[in-house]
Amino acid sequence: MKNMLTPLIGLGILAVLIFIGWQMIKNGDSSITVIQQIKKVAKLQTIEVKAATTLNKSKKDWAGARKNTVYFAEGTVIASIDLERMDISLDENTGVVTLKLPAVEVANPTHDSFTIVCTHGTLTAPDFTDAERSQHTNEAFSIIKTKAEKAKIRDMALKQAKEYLTTFLSALGHQVRFV
Question: Are 75 and 109 within 8 A, CB to CB?
């Protein structure tokens, strides 16, 4: 009988602790629980846009002949929102969760490729210095980043984050409002 009493007491204590915890959540500040749940799933939301451009550059050679080169550049631009930095509040009366998302950050493009497509005007490519080639590369990938921004990469990242959070909070039975 003594051996049976110890497990029963343990189960009784466990049941009481579960009941007390449930009552605290039920009667207590459920906004803390919702906010904790949101923070558990909050992560970095990212979106990628691939873009390409061509760049035509020319330079005179030692004899004064103009040499032309066409470069092809391709890159990937990433926009992200760090959801761990968002502001969260819950209106207990209406059940509406209000979220203020941090700014979308757009990274510089990755250099997927940067190659000479063709040369024209003479039989050989211009003899660019390292500094000139570096400047051409920077110019090409700046154009790629601008193309991604014109494609509204920031809006796409924001929309994706809002859809993610709305789906999650709707599953928890809350309405969502973004400010």
Answer: yes
- Helices assigned H by DSSP within the chain: 2-27, 30-41, 130-150, 153-171
> What residues does each domain of the chain span?
42-178
pLDDT tens digits, residue range 79-90?
999 988 888 888
Percent helix, strand and coil across the chain, each to the nearest 5 = 45, 35, 20
What whole-number distance in Å separates Cα of residue 100 and Cα of residue 103?
Answer: 9
Nearest of 1, 168, 177, 3 to residue 90 by alpha carbon: 177
At 109-161, the pLDDT tens digits run 999 999 888 877 666 677 888 999 999 999 999 999 999 999 999 999 999 89
**Phi, psi angles (nearest 5°) of residue 88:** -130, 135
DSSP letters for 69-129: EEEEEEEEEEEEEEGGG-EEEEETTTTEEEEEPPPPEEPPPEEEEEEEEEEESSSS-----
CB atoms near residue 48 (< 10 Å): 15
For 83, which DSSP code? G
